[in-house]
Write a structure and sequence with these properties.
By secondary structure, this protein is mainly beta. The protein has helices spanning 339-350, 369-381, and strands at 2-3, 8-10, 12-13, 16-17, 47-48, 53-59, 65-67, 72-73, 84-90, 120-122, 131-136, 147-157, 166-178, 189-192, 195-203, 206-213, 221-222, 229-240, 245-248, 255-256, 258-259, 278-281, 295-297, 309-310, 312-317. The chain has two domains: 47-91 and 128-257 and 270-292 and 308-317, no CATH class; 323-386, no CATH class.
Length: 386
């Protein structure tokens, strides 16, 4: 299995790139030397992109696509239904959707020379990967077969260009099964579900995130019935509903931004879901299909997390049964609750993570002293199971 060559930090400043941030990647058949981390000041956050309309979509056997619903105007530009609970979190955002955790992960490994959260990894302004498949090794307990009605994602759009704005279509699919490289794929998935497609009008080159609540549209992302599956993201610039052609954006710089589920951080971050190192990237060439040389091991050294995947977060309605909120470090050895859980909560609070919003408040600042009181009460109540 191939590995990546070099991966560097990217600065996100209101949807634009820090001019000193760049990255390189080898041909997928070449061995990878040790990754190199570029040290520079990171600033800002990605720009917010709001779709003009959304629709249901189905991938057909002939490589074409078909809408399963009409286009629905997206109203409000933000989360309209509460509460929602993370089902699978490969994003790590604060309560408003802005990325956090870049500097605080793994003891500040990413920002030893100074820097800010709001940054993520990517493969640079010359790399193109408009079609990616990642596994969902596990999702949050209690959400097997659930319907995710809120989707948050982050991507780079034509960052090799300047000025010209173009329409952007993002299709998100889920599948019951992820096919590993060792499994002899492609195809990269099995048991595919219908997905959701978002249409962004006149999107200028830059780095963007989108946080879209689908409540009221009748649309959702189906979670795997057995709690383990896959997700796919397609970045396109045209969609012909007559022919079913979804045209991948092969412009240099178009790609998903990269982060990880919490199981790949050190110490483990108690976010929803886990993943493995494998990822399918349609980059050699970007043609809408995979070959075995387009299956990668996303393990890295010198950065954190050491497994990177396309940034996405699926949310479900209400709250699923949770084994024990206060067991922040997910320990399984008795006693489940100890001083390490306090340290874990402090780290989550410092990074602005959603987990630390213990009292589920919505009034800014959502993280405050009441969350400490809430956590203390949950800790005092104890845990009968991890």
């Amino acid at each position: 299995m191939s590995q990546r060559k070099v991966i560097l930090a990217v600065a996100l400043a209101a949807g634009t790139l820090c001019p000193t941030a760049f990255a390189q990647r080898s041909a997928p058949t070449k061995a990878a030397p040790a990754p190199v981390k570029k040290k520079h000041q990171m600033a800002g956050a990605p720009g917010r992109a709001v779709p003009s309309e959304v629709a249901g979509i189905r991938r057909l056997a002939n490589g074409r696509y078909q809408l399963t619903t009409g286009w629905v105007a997206y109203q409000g530009g933000g989360v309209t239904d509460a509460p929602t609970t993370p089902i699978f979190d490969c994003y790590e955002s604060d309560p408003t959707g802005i990325p956090v955790g870049f500097c605080s992960s793994c003891g500040g490994l990413n920002c030893t020379a100074g820097g800010n959260d709001g940054s993520r990894w990517y493969f640079g302004p010359t790399y193109n990967n408009p079609f990616v498949t990642n596994d969902m090794a596990t999702i949050a307990p209690g959400f097997n077969g659930a319907q995710a009605t809120r989707i948050t994602n982050e991507w780079a759009w034509r960052v090799s260009e300047t000025g010209t704005a173009t329409d952007c279509y993002i299709a998100v699919f889920t599948s019951e099964t992820f096919v590993s490289c060792a499994g002899g794929g492609p195809p990269a998935t099995a048991g595919d579900y219908d997905g959701v497609i978002f249409h962004f009008v006149a999107l200028a080159p830059g780095i963007y995130y989108s946080d879209n609540d689908l409540t009221g549209t009748g649309l959702f992302a189906q979670m795997p019935m057995d709690g383990s599956g896959a997700y796919q993201i397609v970045l396109a610039n045209q969609f012909d509903q007559t022919t079913g052609a979804l045209t991948l954006d092969t412009t240099a710089g178009t790609q998903n931004m990269l982060w990880s589920t919490g199981n790949n951080e050190s110490p483990v971050d108690p976010r929803a879901g886990t993943e493995t190192p494998e990822e399918w990237d349609d980059d050699a060439p970007a043609d809408g299909t995979y070959t075995i040389t387009e299956c990668y091991d996303n393990s890295q050294t010198g950065i954190c997390p050491t497994v990177l995947s396309a940034m996405v977060k699926f949310w479900g309605e209400g709250a699923a049964p949770q084994s024990c909120y206060a067991n922040c470090d997910r320990s399984t050895t008795v006693p489940f609750l100890n001083v390490l859980d306090f340290n874990c909560f402090l780290n989550q609070f410092s990074s602005g993570a959603t987990y630390a919003n213990c009292d589920n408040s919505t009034t800014p600042p959502v993280l405050n002293v009441l969350d400490f009181n809430c956590f203390l009460n949950r800790f005092t109540a104890g845990c009968s199971a991890p």
